[in-house]
Amino acid sequence: QGTRVGFYSTSCPKVESIVSSTVQSHFKSDPTIAPGLLRMHFHDCFVQGCDGSILIDGPNAEKTAPPNQLLRGYEVIDDAKTQLESVCPGVVSCADILALAARDSVVLTSGASWAVPTGRRDGTVSQSSDANNLPGFRDTVNVQKQKFADKGLNTQDLVTLVGGHTIGTAACQFFSYRLYNFTSTGADPSINPAFVSQLQALCPQNGDGSRRIGLDNGSANKFDTSFFANLRDGKGILESDQRLWTDNSTKTFVQRFLGVRGLLGLTFNVEFGKSMVKMSNIGVKTGTAGEIRKVCSKVN
Ligand code: HEM
Ligand SMILES: [Ca+2]
Ligand SMILES: [Ca+2]
């Protein structure tokens, strides 16, 4: 597909160490950049391929689209890019920096590492309207599967990659509708009743929609399988996440990650790296396509 592990081994041998030390130093002062960068890479790849289009500034650029408005960590990419331009000018793409930073973010939150193929080139187009095809938090399993299939990702990849919600947080605005008047009798019945009152306390009706709570209750800072146990227990935060447990085609993968007896086990840490490599190769521009941006927030 054009990318390969070690693409910069002669042209910029320090790229991986520079990116990882940059992510690490930002993470020390602000651990929220780890989930931020992982999500940013996903949103980059699903729109125009993994080409750094999410990083471009502009009045109608992708980053202004509603699903992208709360992305964070842009300053980490800019910082790494500045350092890389001083040691190997014009060599490393912003798209690759983001792909490496996403992996480093998983490692910093105690996930397993994987080798990231590099050699992506940067795109020159970034339009907010292109962000419409991103998966939404109210999507049914069929819609989620379709949106992933459109990018060459199967049902196992879907469940595995959504497992990225093992780290990070969501704002109340994305799920409080599930807590009040969801049905004529109250909250979304797929939420564990004991959990409903906890969530209501954290996200009061007509309260601050920007308040954030962990997507993986009790383990929002650690890259582990707790997120899948929470789905089993009716403690998924997003409606789209909880649905992975309601639908049999996705539930079986959740169960396999949980080591349910009678099913062939899957190791989340191992599968996550494999599915990330697939995702990070979506629509990549290689060879002479695109460009190597000088500054990640604007085309050359
Ligand atoms: C059906 C697919 C998906 C949907 C509907 C979805 C939706 C969302 C929503 C609504 C949020 C909360 C945003 C906020 O409040 O700032 C979120 C956060 C997050 N998502 Fe997803 N997501 C999906 C798949 C993925 C995938 C594939 C990844 C990565 C591999 C991912 C990684 C994350 C992370 C790490 C966060 C936390 C961000 C933070 O703390 O800043 N998501 N997602
Ligand atoms: Ca992109
Ligand atoms: Ca976790």
From TrEMBL:
It comes from Gossypium raimondii (Peruvian cotton). SUPFAM superfamilies: Heme-dependent peroxidases. Keywords: Calcium, Disulfide bond, Heme, Hydrogen peroxide, Iron, Metal-binding, Oxidoreductase, Peroxidase, Secreted, Signal. GO terms for biological process: hydrogen peroxide catabolic process; response to oxidative stress. InterPro entries: Haem_peroxidase (IPR002016), Haem_peroxidase_sf (IPR010255), Peroxidase_pln (IPR000823), Peroxidases_AS (IPR019794), Peroxidases_heam-ligand_BS (IPR019793), Secretory_peroxidase (IPR033905). It comes from the Eukaryota. It is found in: Secreted. It holds the Pfam family peroxidase. Heme b binds at residue 165. Substrate binds at residue 135. This is Peroxidase. Its EC number is 1.11.1.7. The active site is at residue 43. The keyword Iron applies.
